[in-house]
């Protein structure tokens, strides 16, 4: 049993010198994806390690790309990528939310192992001045690549914390996790970051502001009526206290609305803020790789072995697909395609509850699958997964074996010749045996699906069987009833009155019922109890491998702390600067 949970180490590879690769960044910072480029060519007779291009979109549903069945949205570049490589049809995010999923992707570990799985309802970082984040003790694949002579950069959305104790310690910052360069947003890309797009805090405003104001107003009216009727002598201090509380609540709301965007929606370059608040209109295309590769670091020294660049983009738009086409074109132009492994995926499923103030659905498509972001129904965790490596990976291949975004950690590490850490459990599995046809099935017999801190479901692909069992210990309560999401709260939650517990667990055969509409029973499945017993034993074994670690998403770690707030310059009681625009003018 223990062997099923161990990782395999790949063969060593030779070191390689750099070559240049120009690449245009996104036209708008509304698009964030994850892109790692590792460029090189052989300088010995040993087979060289490949270049890597890792693209991760944010909230991109498996039903969005044309190659996964979308008939209304044209995605020729992603389709081209899939046609030239392997399409994974059961590729799974390790968590259905941004922060824990990205932590798992970078570390190859379930987020609960690093403390990046919340024990409360808020499962992601909302404020830039929060003290939680990816612990410095965690090993990202960027750190492993850097140990092998790589130069690394992260561009786009980080969402894994920034500071611990003051506004400049940068303990959780990308540059503290193996990246030599960072250009992007430290938190996330909420609709609150763009004026006129509404707010994701509507429910919170109703509970914490409007209802208290109504109660205070009713109390004041009642006291005024009693005093007018002469039935009760109202102390002036009581009236003053109620008015003060009402003014305080209203003042806090106005401060939040005024300060949230500039304090949390900004761009950084390395440790410096370059645009605060972030402006979508002023973000034009940049040529990061061209500018940096032609600098003295790369052009002036042939000692640089690799040029990996990690880029993240967020909200899904057509220009993201255009960017992927530019990457393919550049690789072909520089004759690097045959020595480059490209990976394309999303951090979780589409956010089905994302509705604009005009009532328009902007959440994307999860195809035939139930649920979406923040749930472990297939729509929340089954994401696009495409890998392309001409001449190595067979083109046009489609694999249905269960795989995880955690698998990129050991895959990249092994191909780069970096030994996997031996002082911790790595939950990802090397994908290459599966991609090369050396294995007919994934090395994951069991996969564990967490809703924040809580084990939500178990997936089991038995040896010598085509069945893929999935057992839910609890499921979210969709609202309104009959909907495909939690529209009343904008996102589904993981405990308390927001879920329904199942005893016995809710069991599905995903291979026969991918829509998860018909749970099995002892009558419809004769091995019902036997299957559940095996899955519960696997869950118990997995739980015993967990260690207590600090909760990075505890209320104390996610709350806004003024001493951690980063600000480029105070102007009009707010933070304002636009070095991006100034640098853009200077480059013309």
Please sum up the structure shown.
With 588 residues, the protein is α/β, with parallel strands linked by helices.
Describe this structure in words.
- Among the domains are: about 50-190 and about 265-445 and about 550-565, 3-Layer(aba) Sandwich (Alkaline Phosphatase, subunit A); about 200-265, Helix Hairpins.
- About 25% of the residues lie in helices and about 15% in strands.
- Strand 13 (about 445-450) and strand 14 form a beta hairpin.
- The protein has helices at about 75-85, 100-105, 140-145, 200-230, 235-265, 290-295, 295-300, 320-335, 380, 410-415, 430-435, 530-545, 555-560, 580-585; strands spanning about 35, 50-55, 85-90, 155, 180-185, 265-270, 270-275, 310, 340-345, 380-390, 395-400, 405, 445-450, 455-460, 470-475, 500-510, 575-580.
- Helix 1 (about 75-85) crosses helix 8.
- The protein has about 600 residues and is α/β, with parallel strands linked by helices.
- The longest helix is centred in the middle third of the chain and has 29 residues, at about 235-265.
């Amino acid at each position: 049993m223990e062997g099923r949970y161990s990782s395999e180490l790949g063969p060593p590879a030779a070191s390689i010198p750099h070559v240049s690769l120009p690449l245009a960044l996104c036209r708008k910072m509304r698009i964030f994806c994850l892109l790692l480029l590792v460029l090189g060519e052989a300088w010995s007779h040993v087979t060289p390690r490949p270049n890597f291009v890792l693209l991760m979109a944010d909230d991109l549903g498996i039903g969005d790309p044309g190659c996964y069945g979308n008939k209304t949205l044209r995605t020729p570049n992603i389709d081209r990528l899939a046609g030239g490589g392997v399409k994974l049809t059961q590729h799974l995010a390790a968590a259905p939310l941004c922060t824990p999923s990205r932590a798992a992707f970078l570390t190859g570990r379930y987020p609960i192992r690093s403390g990046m799985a919340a024990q409360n309802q808020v499962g992601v970082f909302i404020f830039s001045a929060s003290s939680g984040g990816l612990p410095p003790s965690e090993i990202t694949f960027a750190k492993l690549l850097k140990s092998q002579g790589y130069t690394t950069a992260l561009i786009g959305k980080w969402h894994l914390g920034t500071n611990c104790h003051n506004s400049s310690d940068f303990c959780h910052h990308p540059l503290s996790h193996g990246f030599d360069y960072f250009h992007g947003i430290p938190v996330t890309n909420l609709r609150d970051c763009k004026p006129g797009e509404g707010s994701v805090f509507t429910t919170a405003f109703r509970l914490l502001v409007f209802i208290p104001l109504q109660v205070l107003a009713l109390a004041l009216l009642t006291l005024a009526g009693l005093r007018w009727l002469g039935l009760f002598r109202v102390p002036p201090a009581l009236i003053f206290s109620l008015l003060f509380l009402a003014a305080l609540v209203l003042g806090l709301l106005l401060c939040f609305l005024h300060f949230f965007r500039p304090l949390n929606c900004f761009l950084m370059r390395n440790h410096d803020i370059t645009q605060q608040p972030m402006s979508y209109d002023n973000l034009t295309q940049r040529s990061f790789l061209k500018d940096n590769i032609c600098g003295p670091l790369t052009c002036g020294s042939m000692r640089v072995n690799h040029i990996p660049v990690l880029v993240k983009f967020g909200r899904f738009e057509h220009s993201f697909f255009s960017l992927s086409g530019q990457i393919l074109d550049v690789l072909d132009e520089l004759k690097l395609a045959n020595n480059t492994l490209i990976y394309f995926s999303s951090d979780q499923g589409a956010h089905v509850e994302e509705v604009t103030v005009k009532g328009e659905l902007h959440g994307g498509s999860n195809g035939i699958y139930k649920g979406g972001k923040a749930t472990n129904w297939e729509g929340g965790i089954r994401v696009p997964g495409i890998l392309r490596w001409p001449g190595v990976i067979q083109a046009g291949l489609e694999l249905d074996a269960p795989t995880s975004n955690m698998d990129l950690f050991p895959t990249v590490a092994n191909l780069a010749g970096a030994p996997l850490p031996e002082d911790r459990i790595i939950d990802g599995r090397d994908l290459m045996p599966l991609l090369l046809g050396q294995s007919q099935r994934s090395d994951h017999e069991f996969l564990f699906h967490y809703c924040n801190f809580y084990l939500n479901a178990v997936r089991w692909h038995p040896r010598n069987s085509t069945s893929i069992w999935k057992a839910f210990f609890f499921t979210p309560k969709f609202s309104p009833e009959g909907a495909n999401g939690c529209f009343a709260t904008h996102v589904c939650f993981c405990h308390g009155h927001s879920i329904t517990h199942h005893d016995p667990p809710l069991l599905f055969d995903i291979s026969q019922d991918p829509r998860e509409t018909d749970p099995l029973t002892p009558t419809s499945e004769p091995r019902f109890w036997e299957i559940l017993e095996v899955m519960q034993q696997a869950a118990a074994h997995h739980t015993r491998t967990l260690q207590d670690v600090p909760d990075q998403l505890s209320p104390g770690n996610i709350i806004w702390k003024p001493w951690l707030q980063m600000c480029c310059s105070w102007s009009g009681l707010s933070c304002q600067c636009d070095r991006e625009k100034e640098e853009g003018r200077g480059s013309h």
